[in-house]
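Aim 2 progress update. The chain analyzed this quarter is reproduced below.
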Amino acid sequence: MFKVLYIILTLISLVTYFYVLRYNMHMFQLNGYKNGEHFNWIKKNSGKERLLILEGLYGILLLFLCNIVTLIIGILIQLIVIKYYLYLKRSNTKKKLVYTKRVQRMIISDVIISLLILCVIGFINPSSIIGGLFILTALHVVYLIFINTVNKPVEAAVNRYFINDARKKLNSVKDILVIGITGSYGKTSVKYYLHTLLREHFNVLITPESYNTPMGVVRTIREHLKPTDQIFICEMGARHVGDIKEICDIVNPKHGVITSVGPQHLETFFNMDNIKKTKFELADALPDDGILFVNGDNEYINEYVTETLGKYNNMVFYRNNSRGEGYTVKNVTLSSKGTEFKVISPEKEEETFNTRLVGEHNIINIVGAIAVANTLGVKLKDLKVGVRRIQPVEHRMQLLEKGGGVTIIDDAYNSNPVGSKAAVETLNMFEGLKILVTPGMVELGDKEDEYNYKFGTYAAENCDYILLVGKKHTEPIYNGVVESGFDKDKVKSYDTLEEALSFAYSINSDMHKYILLENDLPDNY
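Predicted structure tokens:
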């Protein structure tokens, strides 16, 4: 009986081990394989895996007391843990675990090291192996940090090989023009908009989706660059000082675009000075004849340009108003079909453009793309068709007609203090019932509550209903809303997005409903 129970518990414990490993590997991937970021995630989310405390403590008991009773209780504990991690697996649906080569190497290292530890335990006391398996499973909350550290030399060597290979391939394409795009927000949109404007005139390669890390850029070059490509538009993301420089050292951009600088990823940047310096690493990497395109409406960009007066001479500004130098905008009109606006070039040429996109931040991003394309030699009048063809980037102020008098404004991607304010102000421009659904903003460090409170005050000014997702995290938004004098009966908190949307659809109104989805937190939140 003892042997049968021991074998059953061992098999069930192996299943538990892999479910716990899979969940923590998923979170580690979402945290960018960064030990520091993953450790901070552990501190913030320790409650999610509190059940592993029981797993670990029971493992210690099994090291010293392994009999029929403890084996039966162990089986029950493992079944409970398996059921819970199955629930977590079903819940994590926004961005699934991708079994990349790096993940595969980490899993192999994890299993090998665990087997070695269990062999040592078994050599000392064979009956203690099952207790060791319990303990190793419980330690997976932090275990992957150790595995990542062990694998670091291997990962560095692999990355060096791929980076050198990408450099060779990029250098082999004669006269290719590399345009780097970075910014706290807006960089993905500008990348896609610019691609739409240039592809009618050039062979253009872009980094797909949000491939904006060094290895994402390297993968794009190695897998997609063709000898006939004339322009490579390279999106450059950053979470730490030096990240932009690392990408620039790989691709050597000729021109650059800085779409914005703002309080984003403050948990890893720590302060605004670091964010400004990091974004301008792109400017520092440009050659003397390179051109830097910058958003002239952004206060942090203007501050940094003033602080470094004379350092960046070859700059082209673009603005969402008619004041100042560079490419400017006037006569903006919004309708249910999109937006019409006029662009004035530095040479005072004017053209009227139409786009199906809405929102102030979408227009400034389009103007940035127009500025680059026009500077590269495409006439303003020849860009009108391209602007009309620009498609909404998924989850970035994307209008979705749902029928039954409901329009979803999907702005669920990675909300920020500037974009969230612009989004609710855009919502207020529509004629109808204006409903905001949001879980608030994250990755803003010790300023997070302050920015979410301010967001609540902006929402109160522009919305008819405010539906919050996640009662604890949205408390600052709620406070900002009610302290602005907003009707308490029209601000509600829900545990899930589905519950909030269900209420939004159920609101009785003769008016057309406009439901703004502002941000959608990733699974590691």
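The two ends are 44 Å apart (CA to CA). The chain has three domains: 2-150, 174-389, 398-518. These observations will guide the mutagenesis experiments scheduled for the next reporting period.
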